[in-house]
Amino acid sequence: MHDVAARAGVSVKTVSNVVNGYPHIRPSTRDRVEAAIAELGYRMNVTARNLRTRRTGMIALAVPELSLPYFAELADSVIRAAETRGLTVLIEQTSGSRQREIDVLAGRHRDTTDGLIISPLELEPDDLGLFDVDFPLVVLGERIFGAPADHVTMNNVAAARAVTEHLLALGRRRIAVVGAHAGESVGSAALRLQGYTEALEAAGIDVDPALIGEAGLWHRSTGAETMGRLLDSGTEIDAVFALNDAMALGALHALHARDIDVPGQIALVGFDDVDDVRYSVPTITSVSPGREQIAGSAVDLLVARIAERDGDERAPFRRVVPDSSIIGRESTGDVPRRGEERVVSVQHGSTEDFEPLPSS
Amino acid sequence: MHDVAARAGVSVKTVSNVVNGYPHIRPSTRDRVEAAIAELGYRMNVTARNLRTRRTGMIALAVPELSLPYFAELADSVIRAAETRGLTVLIEQTSGSRQREIDVLAGRHRDTTDGLIISPLELEPDDLGLFDVDFPLVVLGERIFGAPADHVTMNNVAAARAVTEHLLALGRRRIAVVGAHAGESVGSAALRLQGYTEALEAAGIDVDPALIGEAGLWHRSTGAETMGRLLDSGTEIDAVFALNDAMALGALHALHARDIDVPGQIALVGFDDVDDVRYSVPTITSVSPGREQIAGSAVDLLVARIAERDGDERAPFRRVVPDSSIIGRESTGDVPRRGEERVVSVQHGSTEDFEPLPSS
DNA sequence: GGCCTGTTCTACAACGTTGTACAGTGGTGT
DNA sequence: ACACCACTGTACAACGTTGTAGAACAGGCC
């Protein structure tokens, strides 16, 4: 920058002003500076600017694992959303490690990023205090409610209820669940199970514990195992609600291994609407939680908090729930021809302010 | 850092030395400094250090899209490999845009990262000049050979040949290909097709153009379409070699839609060994290109180049080809029981120095 | 003419580290 | 007794940018 200034016959600060688009610059000066920049092939040193301005133009995204399709697609969406707002994304894999999630919240990337979007998998309501950080933060997911940070979450209960109602409407009565977490009252598992329960109760059907299949990690393998256990138990089953798509794919695998026809004998529904379920055999009906909206809202909320950083006004914490919808496919016999799909129902989202819960 | 120094009664530089583990420090001094750090809750400003040292501890990874499972899994592996070496990874999605790949090579993240690992999808041998950059660079993939940078690539020809030989050994004679790129002489498509051709010729079988299915983008959807076209063409087919797993899954979908039994009527093999093919119905035999090794080698090569930056010695450019193997599964009838898998064959990799090709 | 406002540019001092050069201090070998 | 070395710590000047304050000038208004 010094060299450019010398060559253009102006001060260093003027070069800085030109580069940053400061308006009050005589056109002739601007041209001279730009010419000098071009001739010398000058490029701004981003690190120095970061140091001086205390901004980096990067945000961190902490997700469990990219090898899980849901998070890979989420990361994809967040990166695109950030890009349109001029931000770069740094991805941190927490790998199902509680300590890694704590590290990230403790500000592992505080200096190199302007803010953090985290999708916690291991932290619990008891850890609410950890979310009281001094940098812009947006929380994703259903594990943590009431943290002192903006929150983007899915329409879990409503969507799960709609899924169950849909299966009931199709005449299914013995609806198994794959992926329950016994004893949990928060998290996707609990909320989706709640929707399931509500739908059954509304229909006057008792929840049969024999139909509730546990699965700790929500992977394809655990989905297959859990489905296998349910089938081997001898319980009568005519439909399966897998609490996410990975498990639905695993469950499908287990059903296939036992020569059970889907949807002929057993109907199957997943959750997340990842790309995979559109190409499995048969294709799987799933809940589309509004991934683009989740990513877009998360980035927007974070950008707003980053902008807020300079002043001293703090907007109230905000919770965003995007619209979700059930995409009917072959596994529920919802489509006339193979490969087709149709929106079976839509659950409307919402946006609201909330008060953080006190942390212990 | 000033405050810490004052509190500990030492100079700022001494604090710096303590933080950076400089050995010649009296234990008592070290203790005082560490106590002061703890009391004040001091944390080093990474940006300032980056500016001063011209190192960031971050590397960039440029891949087409995270929503493609192969790249999501690759990113996962690279992140883990980098982590064990104390590096953080910045992911750049090039989204199948030529311009984005050029931007990254032009040094979009030059200041914020210490080096770049790029997996080009759009750049061609004509663009070789773009790879002559002044920062540490490692190239992945089969599109670019001879660039002035270290290169990690798969054992494409050998693996494809082995796949084809395996299908021949199983008695298949009408082996279709899904995903060919007509007219290309570089890239995964050309190399894998070459392996296919070599195997057929070695077996004294003519290559039938009617069996070669084109597919531009290697997605599930294109795999399904291409498979559909091949089947509708009426050509006799008893095996399919999909040039990647995404297309294999799409092809499986198309086969299922026509009630064709796999492997009864048609055997199916993919390439990449992504997690998906272990849970499809049936499970799909695939080439495992050694993803962990690719990621590990790429990071190692980059780390070596980064270390080289200070001195003026330059090691010759290096090409690493990891071992690959064929994992036999249900789609080729290679396993006795459902869900099992076995290594059908292994192709050994190599490491060699090479001279870059002249760029036009 | 004097005052004010707006434009254009500059000088200086940060931002928070680390590299360099050097100054003590104490021990060792001759 | 002296030179020499290893250890321990310090002062200063960078790294490359931007915020701040203000100078110089022009034009408009009373």
UniProtKB/TrEMBL annotation, chains A, B:
<feature type="domain" description="HTH lacI-type">
    <location>
        <begin position="1"/>
        <end position="53"/>
    </location>
</feature>
<protein>
    <submittedName>
        <fullName>LacI family DNA-binding transcriptional regulator</fullName>
    </submittedName>
</protein>
<feature type="compositionally biased region" description="Basic and acidic residues">
    <location>
        <begin position="331"/>
        <end position="343"/>
    </location>
</feature>
<dbReference type="GO" id="GO:0003677">
    <property type="term" value="F:DNA binding"/>
</dbReference>
<dbReference type="Pfam" id="PF00356">
    <property type="entry name" value="LacI"/>
</dbReference>
<dbReference type="Pfam" id="PF13377">
    <property type="entry name" value="Peripla_BP_3"/>
</dbReference>
<dbReference type="InterPro" id="IPR010982">
    <property type="entry name" value="Lambda_DNA-bd_dom_sf"/>
</dbReference>
<keyword id="KW-0805">Transcription regulation</keyword>
<feature type="region of interest" description="Disordered">
    <location>
        <begin position="323"/>
        <end position="360"/>
    </location>
</feature>
<dbReference type="InterPro" id="IPR028082">
    <property type="entry name" value="Peripla_BP_I"/>
</dbReference>
<dbReference type="InterPro" id="IPR046335">
    <property type="entry name" value="LacI/GalR-like_sensor"/>
</dbReference>
<dbReference type="InterPro" id="IPR000843">
    <property type="entry name" value="HTH_LacI"/>
</dbReference>
<keyword id="KW-0804">Transcription</keyword>
<keyword id="KW-0238">DNA-binding</keyword>
